[in-house]
Automatic annotation (TrEMBL):
All copies of domain BioF2-like acetyltransferase, residue ranges: 167-300
Coiled coil: none
Entry superkingdom: Bacteria
Secretion signal, residue range per the UniProt entry: none
Name of protein: BioF2-like acetyltransferase domain-containing protein
Gene3D superfamilies from the UniProt entry: 3.40.630.30
InterPro entries in the cross-refs: Acyl_CoA_acyltransferase, BioF2-like_GNAT_dom, PEP-CTERM_FemAB-rel, PG_Glycine_Bridge_Synth
Species this chain originates from: Novosphingobium pentaromativorans US6-1
SUPFAM superfamilies: Acyl-CoA N-acyltransferases (Nat)
Length: 358
């Protein structure tokens, strides 16, 4: 009598991110997976880790030589906020991608073991296939929402999709003496970073190193660009956008204090919607915002409906949970102090701190 067939157990291993063939294989898996985001791409998590001095890892689960699950990870080390593995680092999405027949629990167990080896007592999964709560894992679904909707058929229809009050602000911005530039040249990057750094200081947030932003623009190539709104040659508002599966995803944006008076931010996002459609996009993904925040209400004013996001976090036995929530009492005081720093000092100190926020 023949022995009963025993299915081959899926194996979990660390991918070799120094091997171009392995990286290309991961890019192909992400391109084909229906739940993948741009933050799953090695173009994102490898580039951001390299630019911030952190380390990138990728866990893959294979059966019969084929990838059936994939978890990108960034090892973030910070003397201020503590150490963690993030999927994905410096992103609003990521998490575990798993096919039918995968064993997600085995991948997560390997992630826990990796975190302990790297002295990272915390893991954050930003979307993807999530574990059940328990055994160190906590699910959180009330803290952030995402905002996305289809793009309209033409420029006028796009304007009419904006609710009346916000539409009036957009019309005023169109009447102002503002110019729009789109590209990825040094002029575009320098203008963006100047605006972005001032905006972050005004929000009380340490600014990311410019190398991080440049690394993403370089890695994404034609799938990223920078849109800048100027007044009399001065940049007032600017945003880096990545493009993924027909969706425009504005990611790192900001405006100066003068931008509000001239409504440059309103012009920026409306022009980006028009630009996205012209380059073939069918959807506009405004990204996530903290529930109830100013950015949350700003996006609702544009006619976008919030969709609650669920994240998962793991804390090693006996360790304290990582504290990087800007709404906490401890960090709110630090934010208030940061807002008072001279811009030059904030721009020098910010990147040293922000590379550890993740």
């Amino acid at each position: 009598m023949n022995a009963p067939f025993a299915p081959t157990r899926a194996q979990v291993r660390l991918a070799d991110l120094a091997d171009p063939g392995e990286v290309a294989r991961l890019e192909g898996y992400v391109a084909a997976h229906p739940q993948a985001t741009p933050f799953h791409r090695p173009a994102w998590f490898v580039a951001t880790a390299r630019a911030t001095g952190n380390r990138a890892f990728a866990l893959v689960q294979e059966r019969h030589g084929e990838i059936v699950a994939f978890l990108p990870l960034s090892a973030i080390h910070s003397p201020i906020f503590g150490n963690m593995l993030a999927s994905s680092g410096f992103a609003i999405g990521g998490g575990l991608l798993a096919d039918d027949g995968a064993e997600p629990a085995e991948v997560l167990r390997a992630a826990e073991e990796l975190a302990l080896r790297l002295s990272c007592p915390t893991i954050e999964l930003r979307g993807g296939a999530l574990p059940d709560a328990g055994q160190g894992w906590v699910l959180k679904s009330e803290s952030h929402c995402n905002f996305a909707r289809p793009l309209a058929a033409d420029d006028e229809a796009e304007l009419l999709t904006v609710p009346r009050k916000q539409r009036a602000e957009v019309r005023k911005s169109l009447a102002n003496d503002l110019t729009v530039e789109i590209g990825t040249s040094e002029r575009d990057r320098a203008a963006h970073y100047a605006v972005f750094a001032e905006s972050y200081r005004n929000l009380g947030t340490p600014v990311f190193p410019r190398g991080l932003l440049d690394a993403v623009v370089d890695a994404f190539g034609e799938d990223a660009d920078i849109l800048t709104v100027r007044h009399e040659g001065r940049p007032l508002a600017s945003v880096i956008t990545v493009y993924h599966r027909g969706a425009a995803m504005p990611y790192w944006g900001g405006g100066t204090r003068e931008a509000r008076r001239l409504r440059a931010n309103d012009r920026m996002y409306f022009e980006l919607m028009l630009h996205a459609r012209r380059r073939g996009c069918t959807a506009f993904d405004f990204g996530r915002s903290k529930t109830g925040s100013g950015a949350y209400h700003f996006k609702r004013n544009w006619g976008f409906e919030p969709e609650a996001l669920t994240y998962a976090s793991w804390t090693a036995p006996g360790a304290r949970a990582r504290e990087a929530d800007p709404a906490s009492a401890k960090l709110s005081l630090q934010i208030a102090l940061w807002q008072k720093l001279p811009l030059g000092i904030a721009n020098r100190l910010g990147p040293l701190i922000a590379r550890g926020i993740g």
